[in-house]
Amino acid sequence: MGDVIVKSWMIHMNFLKDNKAIRNCIEILTCKQPNSEPIMIAVAYWGKRVEYLISDNRYYKIVCNLSDGGTNPDVISDLMKKENVEIRKLERLHSKVFITEKSAIVGSSNFSQNGLGLDSCIGTIEAAIETSETLEIMNWFDQIWGRSSKITDKDINKARSMFSVCDEKVFENVKPKPEEPINENELFDGEPIKRNKTRMASSRIVNHYCKNESIDISNRTARRVTAHAANLVWVAAGNSVETAISDKSIFKTMDDVFSRMTSKGIKTQDKVLSLLATLKEEKGFSYEIRYWAEQAYIYLERKLLMDK
User: Fold this and answer.
1) Most exposed among 42, 144, 218, 268, judged by the fewest C-beta atoms under 10 Å?
2) How far is Cα 263 from Cα 265, in angstroms, rounded to an integer?
3) pTM listed for this prediction
């Protein structure tokens, strides 16, 4: 008798215990996915604030349920405008499946603020499995895609008549975007840029940080951490700020601030994240500061996760 060759392989499987773990896994798999291969998503219901999970640098094939009133049609309309997204609809779809080339997530979370715990929302109790055994799941998605249909303007209008904005606000704890700009004096001190290279945080923010960390206000690390946080919050709100840095005279985006922060090391990044976590909840600051601190916190948390 000839030799019997037995093929074996390792199947990776990981239990995702809550919505934050699911969201983090989505972000990691998105980062690892080649640009040439589509990310396939068959998730029934979509809500506000999920847009940042759809990267402009990846290609997507998405199937949603637009007929049951659980999906925000404005979110779908926005996704339809993206050149890197193909999105279709399928009645009775109730799955929550996210598929990449190397791994897939099968679980209970919709793409909503509650389902994924976005914007510091505690959200619903969720769980999922991440698995490297994707072949059968991809075949299933191909069948779902084949049964789905294109979304028309008529479909969007019909969905709007079924969807209750009020219900979404109740169940997803949506925080409205501030109508007023950030008060610059609440965020920054009045001193011109000198040897510090960037604008420094206001004394209120420095005092807030030092009190929470039980350190002296003269601590140089405190000045550096609060300055990074203030600049990050400022540009998160859509502003730009001048610097005295030779190769970066203006911070226009959060990535600009993050690059500067990165040069100071991981400990600085973690301290800035910790400050933003308290700043977004501190009722002593204006709603504008708290709202944009939360957006900066979400951005920085994701960046640090992807860089690990």
Assistant:
1) 218
2) 6
3) 0.54
